[in-house]
Amino acid sequence: MTKLRWGILGCANIALRACIPGIKQSQTGIVSAIASRNLEKSQEAADRLEIPKAYGSYEELIADPDIDAIYIPLPNHLHKEWTIRAAEAGKHVLCEKPAALTAGEVQEMITACEEAGVLFAEAFMYRHHPRYERIKAIMQSGEIGDIRGIHGAFTFSNPDDHKNVRYVREWGGGSVYDVGCYPLSAARLLLEREPEAVTTHAFFSPEHDNVDMMMSGLVEFSGNVALTFDCGMWASFRNTLEILGSKGRIVIPSAFVTPTEESGHFRVYVGNEEREEQVPFLNQYALQVDDLAYAAWGEKSLRFPPQDAISNLKVIDACLVSAETRTRVVIQ
Question: Where in the numbering of this chain does the GFO/IDH/MocA-like oxidoreductase domain appear (predicted)?
């Protein structure tokens, strides 16, 4: 089988720890090169992860004719620039979430990719796992009754790392950009519609450039259903999702990251009965890479069209405005 040749734009932890191993475990991809603005850093990563080429600039990697697709794990404020530059060089783009700082920026990125005839995909790895299709099937079967609400939480604690890019406001720092985007995306995925309005409250930390270190919110959907969520970077770790119905509920203990074979399983409660739904232990990063490759080869369409990234950024935009103004924000 032909392999899609990937170039990695930066040595971020998510790239080294998750995406590069995912590409290597995929059916379709190989990692051909990695770049950093520090050649010594990229060379060390290349040697450790057995990547053939290392570059000392992003420009060099993008210019490499032997690269088919670029993975962008750079800080959020750099996503737009390097997506457009990769597109102009004829490379497909897999860009870490959130795709950019605003919905408007994402539209510019998508337009650039369309004009260049390349694909653009946002890297929400969790939604490529087949367990979410199973969860949707249970919801739609009526087993747990009418859907009354969803609650999602994604929190971790890392407040002492003051040099972390997540704590730079101008760079798109903050918890809703970093982890809150997951429950927001999941509710849209499971309910198969877009929200109408949001109301949020946030803890903006002066110690961390006034980014939102914690956010809680209510996201209104049509049909009398809402998502309640919280996200944070200065709180005990949680990574959960619960779908509440009139007859039962679905509980996903590890909703977005699944580090062990058992952590991907979820439970269904109906009346006094409960069962565990066991799911295969699959590399979610490999699945998202395969999705882009098959689309690049014309074998199928992207599971999640690039416009989905615009829709998710509209919700994130509204969450930040709501928290800053202490008002309910209608999503346009």
Answer: 132-251
202 lies in the same domain as 108: no
What's the gap between Cα 222 and its chain centre?
24
Peptide bond before 98: cis, by omega within 30 degrees of 0?
yes
What count of Cα atoms within 13 Å lies in the side-chain half-sphere of residue 177?
Answer: 27
> DSSP secondary-structure letter at 146?
S
pLDDT tens, residue by residue, 253-280: 999 998 888 889 999 999 999 999 999 9
Same domain? 278 vs 317: yes
* Residue matched to tokens 């059916």: 27
Q: Which amino acid is at 6?
A: W
The percent of the chain in helix, strand and coil, each rounded to the nearest 5, is 40, 30, 30
**Residue 268, CA distances (Å) to 93, 114, 142, 258, 282 in order:** 37, 42, 12, 18, 21
Residues 35 and 105 in one domain: yes
Q: Are residues 36 and 9 in the same domain?
A: yes
C-beta atoms surrounding 330 within 10 Å: 11
Q: Domain limits at 92?
A: 4-123
Here the contacts of 266-273 (C-beta below 8 Å, separation 24 or greater) are 266/131, 266/135, 268/138, 268/143, 268/144, 270/143, 270/144, 271/247
Question: What does the radius of gyration of the chain's CA atoms come to, in whole angstroms?
Answer: 20
Whether the model clears a pTM of 0.70, i.e. scores above it, the answer is yes
Q: How many helices (H) and strands (E) does the chain have?
A: 11, 15
d(CA 316, CA 150): 17
Structure tokens at 138: 């249970």
Strand partners for 8: 34, 71
In a domain, residue 13? The reply is yes
107 with 217, same domain? no
Evaluate whether residue 302 is within a structural domain: no
Distance CA 178, CA 233 (A): 9
pLDDT, tens digit, 9 for 90 and up, residues 117-149: 999 999 999 999 999 999 999 999 999 999 999
